[in-house]
User: What shape does this take?
Amino acid sequence: MKQTKSASKFSKLLRREVMRQMPLGVLTLLALLAVLPGYALVAIQSMEGAETMDFDLIGAAAGLLYANPWVILVMELLAVLSASALFHYLHVRQQTDFYHALPISRWKLFARQTLAGFLLMIPLYVLSLLLLCAVYTVKGYGNCLIVVLLVQKAVIELSSFAIVYAVSVLACVLCGSVLAALTVNFGLQVGLYALWECVLIVFRTFYPAHILFMKHWDMKFLSPMIHQCGKIGRLQYSNVDYPDGLTGLISNGTVYRQNNLMRISLCYLLVAAVVLLLAALLYRRRRSERTGQAIVFRGLRLPIKYAAMTLCGILCGWLMFAVTDLWPTLFAGMAAGVILAQCVIEIVFGMELRAMFSHQLSLWVYLIAAVIAVGAMHLDVTGYNETLPERAEIAAADVYSYEHALTTRDYAGQDGELTEEMLQEMEGDLLTDAESIDEIYAMAQRGVQSMRDHRESISYNTEYDVVFRLRDGTHFVRSYYLAGDQDSEEYRVLTERAAGIRFSKQYLASRTPAAMADAGKTEKLLIENSSQAGCAGTLVEDTDAIAALLDSVREESQQLTEDYVTEHPPILMLHTLPDGAWARRQDGEHELYTLDCAEENEFNIPVYACEKQTIALLKEMGIAVERFTLSDVQAVELWSYPQAQEDLTLRSAVTADRDAKSVQIAESSQFGGILAGAAAQILLDACDPIVSIDGTADSYDGMLTRTEGEICFRYMKNMVPVGLDQYW
Assistant: This one.
């Protein structure tokens, strides 16, 4: 009987608290109605009323249902507001004394306030979700409503509320004033992740040859708000018509993505429970007489203070260094940021302005420790940036860079940084010939020298990652940068070394498109010369002919040299098409050209005039091998640039206002001379398996108009016709 009365008493107190917080409930309901049924209704009506609809309405409506970008954000804001409102009494001395004088245990009082927050959210969220389903049913999109996905949607979005709410409650318990609670809450929600990123900034600044894991660890889970908002992008739905309901969604991968997020969300629910348990334990030990103080647990003051000083110091120092590129400003900015944070934190803790000069001992201890740590990193006491293994210890090597001129590999779609997955993929395919290892080792030595002498002026767009496998089976991985930019002499020297690697025997035998193309996986072969580039070309479907051509070009391509390739453009290109690739192109589902689709066995293979056997086979098949067929050329448009400019494409030259001059030439007798040293741009792009060897002239390019379309062309460096200037 006593337990029943106690439970009844707790339920009554809980109902009273929920009723007392009814204004918060009304605000929550209005916000949820706005971002769930309201947002969907407006968006659907807007899509239906659009004059041009080139998208699938059902797929777009499903995207609004399962990936609303506003719900998670609004629920996070409501979580912060709910915790602040329900535990506001902890920051007002009179209210704290009143609540703690009630004939109810601390456990039950904490549970009542916490449960009230969930009761003010969950029923209203379910109601809003049901109204959202009603909107979809009335608007005729009822087939989008799939129970499994709706349940997953609810769990994912409610978990966002739960974790942010739990952390907000913890912040309220730790603090004795509203301002301090909001500040600490912001630090817990966002500040820890920001602090981690600032620590990475320090390591990347002082250790440019930074460790692999320091570049790629995703620590967003340190910030519940940031990590939860990240779900919005991962929930995006690919617009597709799915008449079969759930089957269509499964085939589109949506269920897979939702299930992954479900696992993350369930983990966050568990973390929220642990955080609330910690908050409850601290709530029991919380002293009422400390209400009004910034931090009620004095043992937390120093860690919070040091964390704020570290964050502010790194940010100020890095910003000043980013503006000036001078090491003294980095250290001065760090010192100024630390002192500023000390003053602000002490004012907040002491609740008065003159408190900024309090606790000077902790400031001096921090400054001494920071000077020692930063000084050791600046001087590279550990020698991390300058360490290289002995050449004799290296069994295999490779070099990767997003700047293709410095790399021996191509990772399409990568963000430019070497990842753990890419390193594992490299493991079975590192270069083992002495010639390549020597070149890569020399590139590493150049990087060490650059960062030893000019670390303050390194250019981050010259990054290249070096991988060595030592004879004991371990790996040595470093990232290097050059002091100069991409137009520097050092950069040119390194590009020459990388190009030399790409023409080594091992590379030509294993990494070129000609070496990697598999005739057994090639359904069709598209052959294009300069006159057919960008058009249909000649399609070869005979498997024996395909095998013969690929075997021939594989054998002859291994005899190519860097000097020959940089002075002679290819005369045509073989484009391998795996099963279904041609049909997808005909349906417009795939771009016509890609440099590296190794997983699908899709390659562009250049063919040069020196590859006599391959050319003979093509001639036997009746395929024209000349670079340009002039008979159907109607006009030539030629562009001239006052100075050589890197990365200048045909279209960007016209639109980027770079002082390019153009001229239209319609006299057919002049076409032969103009096009004598030219080659189609797309053929030049296929000159190397990773990037076109820098053998093209930057001063001229153009476009010729044919009866079947337009073709962009460029000149090799040593093949620009004499007298082109006469056309201007």
